[in-house]
Amino acid sequence: MSYSLYGAPDSANIIVHMVLEHLAHLVGPDELSYELKWVDWSVKEHRSDQFLSTLNPQGLVPVLVDGDQPVFETAAIVLYLADKYQKLAPLASAMPERPRFLQWLFYLSNTLHADLRVQFYPDRHVVDESAVGPLLEKTRERVAGHLSLLEDELAKNSSGPWLMGEQLTVLDFYLGILCRWSQLYPRGRALSPDVLICLPHLQALLTELEQLPAVVKVFPEHKIRAPFFNQPSPPDLSVEKVSAF
Ligand SMILES: N[C@@H](CCC(=O)N[C@@H](CS)C(=O)NCC(=O)O)C(=O)O
């Protein structure tokens, strides 16, 4: 099966990119191949009529195209892929792993990622520019609270470093990127890396993630140098090429 993945450097598509790469490694190129379709941020290609009418009416990346079916929303895409290949997620019948897995997938998507979008684009959430500073301060506090809650959850796992314990799942790729971005964007006004340094289980997960072959392969394609998750640096690209700069 061959897919097209639409996205931009260091944007939410990088989560899907890592998942595709990891799955391709597991099932082999005959079962899964993909092509990256870079969307040109500098000309707002994601807001073009063509993109809005055929790929995602929200004007957001990522979009995965499977055959002639586009799928948007990061969580939906990674769940779709995990279920299709029966890898990187507990099976639908697995108890109690599956409800726990779904709970954290929705938490990452609806709570942590949603608040990070406020952190990245605060001007979209205020009427008056003077409200941006206080909004950012409160949002960073909320994000730090979500990370601390995830740290508590990870601390309960004795079987392994991942959010589901022993089993690496799509959750870990998603969480890793959200941790990365929380410290980077918006440039100069993101969460202090010190917040993550004080969360040892989250640090351990990020360190494990850093070494996965899929991660090591994908990040350079986004012009990102290691370390990718712990005290990360932005892509070596001009500001207008990256969505949340
Ligand atoms: N809820 C969406 C959020 C995706 C998202 O925030 N994409 C960003 C890039 S990281 C984007 O396309 N931003 C463009 C914009 O907001 O105008 C998802 O999970 O796919």
TrEMBL record:
Pfam families: GST_C_3, GST_N
Key word Cytoplasm present: no
Gene3D superfamilies: 1.20.1050.10, Glutaredoxin
Signal peptide stretch: none
Residue span(s) of domain GST C-terminal: 94-236
Start and end residues of each GST N-terminal domain: 1-89
One example GO MF annotation: transferase activity
Record's keyword terms, sorted: Transferase
InterPro entries, per database record: Glutathione-S-Trfase_C-like (IPR010987), Glutathione-S-Trfase_C_sf (IPR036282), Glutathione_S-Trfase (IPR040079), Glutathione_S-Trfase_N (IPR004045), GST_C (IPR004046), Thioredoxin-like_sf (IPR036249)
Keyword Ligase: no
Protein name: Glutathione S-transferase family protein
Organism: Amphritea balenae
